[in-house]
Amino acid sequence: AGEVEDYYGKELQKTEDLKTNACITSSKPVPKAVRDALERVHEEVVCLESCWILDLGSGSGRDCYLLSQLVGEQGHVTGIDMTEGQVEVAKKHIAYHMEKFGYQKPNVEFLQVYMEKLGDAGLADNSYDIVISNCVINLAPDKRAVLQEAYRVLNPGGEMYFSDVYASQCLSETLRKHRVLWGECLAGALYWKDLYRIADEVGFSPPCLVTASPITIGDKELESIVGDCRFVSATFRLFKVPGSSRAGPGQVTYNGGIVGHKRELVFDANFTFKEGEVVDVDAEMAAVLRSSRFAEKFLIQPSAAPQGCRCKGVKVSSRQLHGWVQG
């Protein structure tokens, strides 16, 4: 952890110092309204009013301050980071932003703690609606512990929405210990199949792939070190679905009304919901929509015999992700 802190805190002074695009790859273009506020926040992170959000690896706090405005004064945002310097920088701007937002009291806090040990900072079970993360979980030696902690602190129906780097194969010990590759977000990349396995073991619903894009390595020396291994930047959403929400396949109709997505909600690579349109979904998606913060935005009914035209999601399977990773 100390070497990673040094690499980010001392050696990397600007984007041009990076040797790959792993840490700056955007997995999907962002609408102008959000891009103007902050380029790295995805438009699928919607329905945020009054939510409690946890940002893993919050850095200087930019994402947190944007989210603190989106959740409103009744919501709350917690940013955690392992580096003391980043946390102190983030804290300096709390009063400024609360005044700008017109809040009577702060709805954001920053804590120095490792994301594998959220309990050390007193973060309780079932206390957050959403956990977000942007290209930092790959830096954690124990990724299972990170997902386990995220699952623990999420409320039933809660979501983990995160972007990170994934590899086409299990990385050798040589690659995992390479100092520059660690700082470039590659040495800690999880084999993509392991994400699906760990998510299942922890208790999450199957990962919903939102977007994926290849990572280019512009450094000849690093290219020779990684060999035939390929990397992608991918965004996933995982849900903590309670057993009581699991029934069977369903037919769902988006009622519209989500700010910025009144007519159409692009949920992931499989499902785009248009206002008023009936869509057949599998049991997992039906359970996700039924238990999550999106529930009141949908009419959800059990599957019935097809009557007339029904729309279906276009399935993007783990097999297709494998194809993207292999390039």
TrEMBL record:
Any Gene Ontology biological process: arsonoacetate metabolic process
Catalytic function, reaction form: arsenic triglutathione + 3 [thioredoxin]-dithiol + 3 S-adenosyl-L-methionine = trimethylarsine + 3 [thioredoxin]-disulfide + 3 glutathione + 3 S-adenosyl-L-homocysteine + 3 H(+); arsenic triglutathione + 2 [thioredoxin]-dithiol + 2 S-adenosyl-L-methionine + H2O = dimethylarsinous acid + 2 [thioredoxin]-disulfide + 3 glutathione + 2 S-adenosyl-L-homocysteine + 2 H(+); arsenic triglutathione + [thioredoxin]-dithiol + S-adenosyl-L-methionine + 2 H2O = methylarsonous acid + [thioredoxin]-disulfide + 3 glutathione + S-adenosyl-L-homocysteine + H(+)
Q: Which domain of life is it from?
A: Eukaryota
- Keywords recorded for this protein, A-Z: S-adenosyl-L-methionine, Transferase
Q: Where in this chain does the record put each Methyltransferase domain?
A: 51-203
Whether ATP-binding counts among this entry's keywords is: no
Gene3D superfamilies, per database record: 3.40.5.100, Vaccinia Virus protein VP39 (3.40.50.150)
Task: Please state what the protein is called.
Answer: Arsenite methyltransferase
